[in-house]
Amino acid sequence: MQVVMMLLGTHDKIGDNAPKEDVQKIGGFAMKLASEGKLKGGQQLRGLEEGFRVASDGEVGRIIDGPHAELKELVGGYFELEVESMEEAKAIAAQCPHLNTGSVVVMPVVPRGQG
Amino acid sequence: MIDPVLALRVVRTEWSRIVSAAMRILHDLDLAEDAAQEALLVATEKWPVDGIPANPGAWLTTVTRRRALNILRGRKRRRETALPDGIEIANGDADAPQDTQDDRLTLLLLCCHPTLSHDSRVTLTLRLAGGLSTREIARGLVIPEKTIGQRISRAKSRLRDVANPFSELNPDHLTERSGAVMEVIYLIFNAGYLNDSADAPIKRELLWEAAMLSQQLCEVMPDNPEAWGLASLIQFKTARTGARITANGHLVPLDEQDRSAWDRVAITRGERFRTSAIAAARRGPAIGAYAIQAEIEAHHCRAETFGATDWISVERLYETLAELTGNPVTELGWVVARSYARSPAEGLDLLERLGTESNLANYPHTRATRADLLRRAGQSQAAEAVYAALMQDETSQSQRLFYQRRLSELAGLKRG
């Protein structure tokens, strides 16, 4: 089964602000998962400085320049994983080096054609 | 961040090089694999910090040799096992200039050793030359992981019983054994290409492995036209995979494929390998079944529309191929090519003729081809009967969907 593991963190701990050492550790972790045939894809994301946020209430569609302080957690990157079970996904997530700076959420992917 | 998927592909491309380098030192498949695994582990620590090295093959080989020598020293110290004859531990370290002997072919030939069954050859090649994990092999071949694990360990112990497994190659056996390697690479390719599970990424993984292995074979035997033919064939067929199956798993027949979705880069590569096949054939051995199939695929890839295909040439190539191999897949290809080069009725005639002479009648795709020829010859009722029978027996979902569509079309014709 396919799951997506999202690495969440506060504005100052993701993207270009992410501690270099953590990024390197996550890279090694990802390579190891890839060598076990569990990693199918994924990317690190740049921070909100280079992205943007769109209002969904009031003036719907307005670009919000900031502040983004009310956003507790942002996605800093994601892994697409191929696992045997959610148990295995839990074991993988528990070892993610990102847990030093942020949290991790994992959700199963709806298979193609079943959405 | 380092791109882990790319980094791993780089490792996999070099996997047979590093396993064979370790094998040259350790003469034991399990230990050689351990050494290669340790090198991979070092890479997962170093590469995210320093980036992928400029020459990853040399980098990994150096690390692997160092690990292999450590393993060897440890064994010698513990006196667990006697060192194989003629193995000396060098005083220098792995950074010292090494003999640059390329052992990848030796490893491939070992994986395809005649003492092993075809299934074992495929599995062992994916593991030792392709660097796939047991789980990935299991998923790719749609076989339980446990079975794959057992198959690998049994194959390894069988090879251990064979006298010096990493001996120098006997040139007399090389041609014969290289045929076995090509067969295995083609089996790997087909496992990816014909795979019908919903697990699309694994499928591409097998196609990638087969392409990589075929190119390695060309590197180590550049004078063999069949190696180039196989590499070319794989590129041409891979080029069309994106257009061959829809997102919902429907099979798209060649005449309905969106040709603009074919991978031009792969086609160009296929043409390049094909040129090398012809050049190699001019220098030495004649062109064989793989190179002829590559010629056929080249005709398909060059045609801008299905109708523009040079069917006369394709039919001639299939006829040669059928005579050469006598295999039912090829004979069926010949039948189809003739039906387009001449007429569906003449295709049916050939099918009748071949069916009585060979085991074509028992080949499962024969009925589907017959149904298609009947349909195109305007014999709707007969076609309908064959499609209905096919629906009864077929388990593959994408095939069933396709037959169902043909049945609805034929029903529509009747009403219309």
What descriptive keywords fit this protein?
heterodimer; A: 115 residues; alpha+beta; Alpha-Beta Plaits; 4-stranded antiparallel sheet; two-stranded antiparallel sheet; 2 helices; 6 strands; globular; B: 416 residues; mainly alpha; Rna Polymerase Sigma Factor, Chain: A; Serine Threonine Protein Phosphatase 5, Tetratricopeptide repeat; 19 helices; 72% helix; elongated
Helix content of chain B: over 70%
What's the architecture of the domain at 310-416 in chain B, going by CATH?
Alpha Horseshoe
CATH class group of the domain at 310-416 in chain B: Mainly Alpha
Mean pLDDT of chain A: 89
Oligomer: heterodimer
Describe the structure.
The complex is a heterodimer of chains A (about 120) and B (about 425). Chain A is of the alpha+beta class and about 120 residues long. Chain A has helices at about 20-35, 85-95, and strands at about 1-10, 40-45, 55, 65, 75-80, 105-110. Chain A has a single domain (about 1-110), classed as 2-Layer Sandwich (Alpha-Beta Plaits), CATH 3.30.70. Chain A has 2 helices and 6 strands; from the N terminus they run βαββββαβ. A 4-stranded antiparallel β-sheet of chain A has the order 2-5-1-6, with helices on one face. Chain A has a two-stranded antiparallel ribbon with strand order 3-4. In chain A, a hairpin with an 8-residue loop joins β3 and β4 (about 65). The longest helix of chain A is centred in the N-terminal third of the chain and has 16 residues, at about 20-35. The model of chain A has no long low-confidence stretch (mean pLDDT about 90). By secondary structure, chain B is mostly helical. Among the domains of chain B are: about 5-80, Rna Polymerase Sigma Factor, Chain: A (Orthogonal Bundle), CATH 1.10.1740; about 310-415, Tetratricopeptide repeat domain (Serine Threonine Protein Phosphatase 5, Tetratricopeptide repeat, Alpha Horseshoe). Chain B has 19 helices and no strands. Mean pLDDT of chain B is about 85; it is low at about 85-100. The interface between A and B is medium-sized, with 25 and 27 residues.
